[in-house]
Amino acid sequence: MVDNWTTLRELLLPTGPRRGRAVESALRDAIRDGRLVPGTRLPSSRDLAGQLEVARGTVTSAYAQLVAEGYLLARHGSGTTVAPVGSGDATPAPPSGRQSWRIDLRTGVPALSAFPRAEWVSATRAALAELPDEALDYPDPAGFAGLRTELASYLGRVRAVAATADQIVITNGAAEVLRLMFEQLRMTGHRTIAIEDPCLPGERELVEAHGLKPVSISVDDRGLRVSDLAKTDCRAVLTTSAHQFPLGVVLHPDRRHALLAWARDVDGVIIEDDYDAEHRYDRPALGAMQALAPSRVVYQGSVSKVLSPALRLGWAVVPDRFRATLVARKRFSDMGTATIPQATLAWLLRSGGYDRHLRRTRALYRRRRDALLAALAEDLPDWRPIGIAAGLHLVIRLPDGIDDRLLSQALAARGVNAPALAGYATNGLFPGLVVGYATLTPDRLRTAVAEFREAVREI
């Protein structure tokens, strides 16, 4: 164990005395100036004493003093770790940049507790057992061939996507597909791209960060208004046609055909974000647009809403004219996506584990959605939920006269995260809340509705 901590000798006391309070002072200084960050696990007193060539009691005393001062945390069976400086609080801080909510109704996250840990571990072992040694080299930037083969079969069977393994590129989440495509569009002369209004949070900023100007196109109960798109000079559009985010509407068949005709007329590109398409409860499956015009549509998806966003596994079905350039740029940017998680996902797809997990979670999410709908119907019958037939979230249309931003702020003050619909749109829409239900139990969702009722009274 000592060998694992040899850097602490150089970090704490590279020279000078290693006796008395020198160890205590060196540890305190390293924590104060950030060389030992909160959460760092320290070696045992025996190990550190061996490194520093001091008596074990010297280290034990130093640890005890720094625990008393709040610089260190000591838990039986967990060792000694660095605490927030001077806090004396053993409660870990929430991840950087993410607020801790009493009730978090944010969207875009599946039930993380439902992740199939045992199946994933088993699939990883099975995949590793059959991987040849050469597969552990730097990955193919287009993606692991076994996963591309399984995805071509799965997407054809489940989403009616027309693709071969050679047309699929594996990425680090769906966000990398967008980055690669935005760069491709800019390099080929595009200066604008049409996006839906309302749209995914951060979508406009992502477009702008890659050198394009976002042009907002309104969405109504039939989906993207293609007639408005045709009035712009855009030759590219990003759409969530199967389950529009956040309104949950499906792009009407007439508008699908109009959108494909627009792409042919302007020599345009459609980026089809298949957001939440696999989670449906009250409507039949609707095939992807990609099969209707494979040369015009870039189809993208990921496992983030089915398994976990922590996996960072996404994919794109790319028209032949884009593929070589995208793969080359992916090679230069990140040397490819990690092979072992790809091989694990390929095993889950081939063995049926992915389908089984999806069936289990569909039933789970339907129960949670139904509990939320029942609570709204009972406690707030004038609030109308929309976009309920699929996905992991819904929009609650509020009665006229309620300011959704003020209501969202009042809920935030009560520790409830329920974003206002106004924050997703540039054009005026009806007042609403965008509510994710996948991560909360039915009891917690009923509590959330009770919080809605109390918060609206306050405003």
TrEMBL record:
Keywords per UniProt: Aminotransferase, DNA-binding, Pyridoxal phosphate, Transcription, Transcription regulation, Transferase
Annotated HTH gntR-type domain residues: 17-85
Coiled coil location: none
Q: Which Gene3D superfamilies match?
A: Type I PLP-dependent aspartate aminotransferase-like (Major domain) (3.40.640.10), Winged helix-like DNA-binding domain superfamily/Winged helix DNA-binding domain (1.10.10.10)
**Pfam families linked to this entry:** Aminotran_1_2, GntR
Extract the CDD domains matched here.
Answer: AAT_like (cd00609), WHTH_GntR (cd07377)
Record InterPro entries:
Aminotransferase_I/II_large, HTH_trans_reg/aminotransferase, PyrdxlP-dep_Trfase, PyrdxlP-dep_Trfase_major, Tscrpt_reg_HTH_GntR, WH-like_DNA-bd_sf, WH_DNA-bd_sf
The answer on whether this UniProt entry bears the keyword Glycoprotein reads no
Alphabetically, the GO molecular function entries are:
DNA binding; DNA-binding transcription factor activity; pyridoxal phosphate binding; transaminase activity
What is stated as this protein's family in its record?
A: In the C-terminal section; belongs to the class-I pyridoxal-phosphate-dependent aminotransferase family.
Q: What is this protein called?
A: GntR family transcriptional regulator/MocR family aminotransferase
